[in-house]
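Review box. Two proteins, two foldings.
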Amino acid sequence: MAITNNSTAVQMGQDRAGEHRSAPASTPSTISTLTGIEPPTSKEARLDPEIAAITPETTTLDTPLQLVTKTLDITDNPSQSPYTFRAFIIGLGLSSFGAVIAEIFYFKPQTVGVQPIFLIIAAFCLGEASALIPRWGPVGRFLNPGPFNQKEHVFIVIMASSAAGSALGTEQLAVQSLYYGEQPSAASAIFMLFSSQCIGYGLLGVMRKTFIYPTKFVWPTSLPLASLFQSMHLNKDLAMKRMRLFWYLCLGVMIWEIVPQYIFPLTVGISVFCLANPNSAVFTYLFGGTNGNEGMGLFSWSMDWQYIGTTQFVLPLNTLVNQLIGYVGCVILTVAAYYCNIWNAQDYPFLAQALFTTNGTVYSQTEILGKNNEVDPSALAAYGLPRFATSNALALLTLNMGTTAAVMHIFLWNWADVKLFFASFSPRTIKDQLFTTSWKFWRTTNPQPPTKPFPGTEGDPHFAAIRAYKDAPSWWYHTVLLLATAIGLICCYEQQTSLPWWAFLTALALSWFLTAIFACMCGITGFYFPPATAIQMIGAYLVPRRPVANMMFTLYGSNALMQAISMLADLKLAQYAKLPPRATFVAQLVGTCVGAVLNWVMMNSIVENQREVLLSVEGTNVWSGQNVQTYNAQAVAWGGAGDEMFGRDGVYWMVPMGLLFGLIAPIPFWIGHKFFPHLRLDYFNTFIICTWLGVLSVGINSSLTAYFVFGFLAQGYIRRYRPLLFAKWNLIVAAGIAGGCSLIVFILTFAVFGGSGTERPFPAWWGNNNQGNADRCLYMNRI
């Protein structure tokens, strides 16, 4: 997991990532585009030194170089060291906390992530507290080497953020346990997690210079975090003011969250329509949404910050507008498809991730599996093909659209920014690299920086400053790649996944290719979404009839891509914060390995104690198996019956056609903007719109109204009309809310939600409907 959470990184980005160069007069300043902060006036900057440090007086910030030099401090103190005892202890502690919380969140009805802002604040508080330890004698100086510095802070947070994500491999292990009755040994499972989590670092580590060094690869989601680091360490007095507000909010949210999470679940989503008519199925589908897979949650008001989240506080207004377009489109598309009975929608639940038979019962995949968990064609013909809930099929279609829309969007609107990468694959460049690189890695020294600057870094003081430190040798990344590949191959055969070695290597090659595309997109625009469905489709055609093999192909094809993007975001943040590259490498690797082990421990505990809930279609408002159900259903569908279901004569032939639709989607807007720039068609980002067309297909949906209200309040009003207030307190408010939610969810999970084995439900009353939907809507999912 990058320091920029993947779910946030998907949505964050430029206000006008697709800005056409022909309309400079209406182009907003890059600072507001990339960081979501409108530059305050010169007067405001003079009145508050904190704001002056974040957004100094400037008239234009239209180029990436102006942006990174005017909004971030360019000074460095090489005497500061990140390698302190307290940095490792705090980093390991937050890594452990983040990994456990992330895995708990993964089995929630609405998957949320550990917010990086919370990790930054928590690390700062712990670091400052450790600086109060008396420096008496060698032990005191070892425990407290001096003031807590920025390099230690960034080192801790990169380590913690690398751990604070749910490893995709745990999803596969959960599926194998829940649906196949298989549970690999602890050693095999942990080594598989090590391999799948680290292989992305090796894949892209050797190409990191292309995506990190050039100034035009700004990595927008790293900018506000780098700014927050600097504001904490450049002026301690102002930082302490922020900390007080953070802890007030954190404590307040912790106390409040007990109400919606435990005592009064109705407040997760108050639906006036369902309260007025609790016996209407239409109202449930359209306005219900407090339970997993209940309904669209339209106009429901959530008071649970765990599900509302805080990403809307930092997303640019343009991003929120495109999300809103996709959200409205999703409601219309899903409801219309259901009541028009597309794909026999009314034979299946309105929202569901499981597989079904043609008569609407849950599909038993054991009926079609033969030896080695391969699909038996005769058994498949006898039992019948699996079916999706129509909402799930639509989500697959729109995600495919989003994948290719993202690629086309970049090539149409940002070709000038990405052509540098493709130039590095010219025959001459490859020849020069082969014959000028020393392959004697054991003789690696720290050469002097070359006199010729790296292309695209001219005049960049951040790049010049980071060159003063030893770079992580490429053979470190080569070694990680070789070890992770070897371990992955061994695990494939040891766990009897039936994925052949050549398909495994194909998955890695596919991941490497797609990483090149999506790294360009994310580095420039901040938009990212893992193209897992497209990868799964390719795996199905390469290795048909093998669901477990398809899952393993998807794991190494998709997870390596996500980890590579995470690594790059962290490396760019480290460059902005002047953390030495070798320290970044160590922090990422240590955090990733610690997180993998704790992810596995928590996954085993949750699967063992909540097995029946995880296998149910709807789950509860506390636990849900939506993610493992989706992963398994797609593996069985694609890997077991891909051609029959998605081929030319298949029921869902339109799902793979989504790749074509996505390629076409950005073109009309691009052509229209070329001829009619005054229409501002560049404001529409088809990548965001397409991915959000399927956003309501899973989970608790009652939080979306509050999500948009708070987002438009922060970005549309406070940012625009109160920029000083926005720049001073916006990130801290988001951090306080996220921190309070993370802490109380951690406590409640083990205290009352059965995370430790014993569940203690709150007594039933009108506001805690244990026998149906918490918002009192008619309960429909009775399968």
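Next protein.
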Amino acid sequence: MKITVDFEECLKDSPRFRATIEEVEGDVCELESKLDKLVKLCIGMIDAGKAYNAANKQFVNGIRELAQQSAKDEVIESSLTKFAESLQEMINYHTILFDQAQRSIKTQLQTFVKDDLRKFKEAKKQFDKVSEEKENALIKNAQAPRNKQHEVEEATNILTATRKCFRHIVLDYVLQINVLQSKRRSEILKSMLSFMYAHLTFFHQGYDLFSELQPLMKQLGGQDFSNDDTKLEYNVDADNGIAMEGYLFKRASNAFKTWNRRWFSIQNNQLVYQKKFKDNPTVVVEDLRLCTVKHCEDIERRFCFEVVSPTKSCMMQADSEKLRQAWIKAVQNSIATAFRDKGDSGEKLDRKSSTSTGSLDSGGEPKERSLKGESALQKVLAIPGNACCCDCGQPDPRWASINLGITLCIQCSGIHRSLGVHFSKVRSLTLDSWEPELLKLMCELGNRVINQIYEARREELGARKPQPGDPRHEVEAYIKAKYVDRRFVRRPSDEELRTKVVSLSKEEKRLSSSSDHLPPKAPPPTPKLRPGSHASGQSVKSADSGIQNSADGSREMLATTPSSNSLADAEAAEAPPVPATLPTASPCKEVVFFEPKEYSPGLQLYWASFSRSLPDMAEALAHGAEVNWVNTEEDKRTPLIMAVHGGSLVTCEFLLQNAVNVNQLDAQGRGPLHHATMLGHTGQVCLFLKRGANQNAADIDEKTPLSIAVEAANADIVTLLRLAKMNEEMREAEGPYNPSGDETYQDIFQDFTHMASNDPDKLNRYQQYDPQRP
């Protein structure tokens, strides 16, 4: 309750004033009691929290010891190690939270109690004393006899002096009361707000941390460790010739229809079973090519399926729905393999799992997948300046900000997380998997490049850069000044900005004219028959089949993808840029530099995206460029569309990591996916589809990316677009039971991603889209 005292009322010293003063004093006394109690409770909470952290550290050490003991089991060791790292980081977050509670609740409220309430109490003592003196003076003045003039004058003088003193003291007391009431609100709320924001940061950091951990948890949670379901998989190349085996219940064909548990196996294109190990196998199906398999839901038992041949049928029951699906898929794959083996004169299909989970490679060698652990760490730390934390200089960093392209120590990574993902996206260099395009992004930027931008004026302003071991609040203040306020960024003059933009446009022309960057020669276009020709129907059919064959060929092409390309070689072979002057018949307008009406950081980002210069793009963003900036003088094109025309996958990835809109359209109604499809940039199409690009969007000519790819006969892009559409439909149909969609889709997209980053020449097999070509 806020009680204010009127100054005029206090001078009257009326009963109302005395009653108000009494109420205020009672309220302040109760406030002091409550604040003392709250501070004691806070101290107890902090002590309990420290004890919890100490016990939690021992628990985490126990997890690490268990992981070391389980070194022979890679799954247990890697999982427990990652869990221990995450829990250790949560302990660090808890420590920060308790430190904030110490500062905001205990220290701040204790200061309020000791300073402000102490001043109030001292003012109250003086008020009580002068009130008593005034009361005595009044009594003495009243008792002075009329006939004793010197006593009357003395009493009068004492009363006058006492009243003056009382007025000064009471005014000071009332002022202290009003100041206390006002400061009480600000101090208490400021203290609690600071504490609540500390909680907000704590839970936000925890959410980000476990969001990164969630894929591993889902992967482990999807495995059934309690039974042998996960051990059942179809393997056509098993050494003993048995593609799959396990227990099933079989319904007898007698009149009683009894169910018996038997050991079934698929071998030599046959389905067989046996009762005991020594028994000779009983053949259920002689030739799987003549069979079909289907679910059975019209009988009382669960998890049943039926294998039907021309002469008989066999009803079987699995132990779970997962096992039923595995057996049905195994039989289907066996049927397909039997036909293929027969057609290839007994040649075996070179793969090691079912079509839904198997690799698309046919060479038998495993492809390079997303880099993880020491591999990604070594490549990123090899960049000059990355061996120490970008912000405090702590050696051997283990974290990175992927949208800034820098490495961080664990303390600075926690501060970066608290800034929010719109400023910094933190990822572990050892615990997380790294996509090839993201790893190349990190290798093109680095601490030295970013610090030249974000710390350009640091020495000029006399700002001290944090050192390892500095207090967290000092490091946090520096990081916020550096990335949020951008206090140390040097703003370019208009002339410097103009020079930068012009040089970027000239750099692109130089790169485009270089023979090392020209695209490969396009194959001659397929001739089309005029309408009315007797073979017109046949020509259409041939064209369609050609596209389909190319789509099938793309899968074979994936099999020859090399698995060990260095980043340097891959970067040199990155998809070539579009020539500065495109054919006049192309729907992608000629990219030519015109003198703009106004130079801005957005224009710098626009041309830097085209010239594939990530440092200049990062500089433009630091200068305040809008990542979705629109060039109204150039058909409303955006930096992402210019990155597509520049032909670089990494520049597109950099913009996507900095929250660019992947579906922003130009004046022709075309988004980045349209442009990538028209230019035949398969790697960019794959990247945009993974990032949620709308493939159903139609431009002003009512053409979608798929219709453009079909017309251009680009089988790779047609395959990607159709797979993405199919996967989207499957996700919608299966809902929460399969949020990631089909596994084949994931495998194929991963293959295209690695090829686009590590061997892009294999994707440069098609000419650009031209609706007017013959």
